[in-house]
Design goal:
alpha/beta, Rossmann fold, globular
Length: about 200
Amino acid sequence: MSGGVIYLVRHGETEWNRTRRYQGWSDSPLTERGLAQAEAIGRLLRRLPDAQSAELVASPIGRARHTAEIIRDRLGRSEPLRFDDRLREISLGSWDGLDRAEIAALRPGIFDGDNYHEWYFATPDGESYEVFAGRVAAWLAEAADWPLIVVTHGIVTRVLRGLYAGLPRAAALRLPVPQDQIFRLANGGIEDISV
């Protein structure tokens, strides 16, 4: 995949991130640290020449929306944000909002073994990998209006980078998901830009 650039950003730290509670389609507010992360990302993007003309698009979930609003303000822009439901985090169904211990009590052993990150797709009423990756892939295939600044979620950033780079599923699901870093996707490659 080539032809443009995507600046991929995960939302800032939330209250539930801090307590290791899995949000899925649920939401919690940005912490002070999360607000500072969004501010720093916005300031960094302002210094990158090809980010100046990039359209800002985000997941509609509150934590990504708030992060995108802060980035927009740091970029000195006032245009309305564009949201895309395909950039939502994975739905964990009835496990949205649970912490690790609560999930382990419902499904003993789910976090064991080499396929640790596969648990996201083992929820009884959440999204399967195929459904989730399908909606992310559909968004990526239509992302022709590059350059873009994309504000989304941890699992989305993993799967999106994996699809972009043609990584095997297991490798993509192990990618890091920092909240203080930008991933620049361009010309088939992925560059990490730290704040």
